[in-house]
Amino acid sequence: MVRVRAMRTLENAARRWGFYRIAGCDEVGRGCLAGPVVAGAVILDPECHIPGLADSKTITAAERERLHDLITRKALAWSVAWADPEEID
Question: Which letter does DSSP use for residue 83 in this model?
Answer without folding.
Answer: E
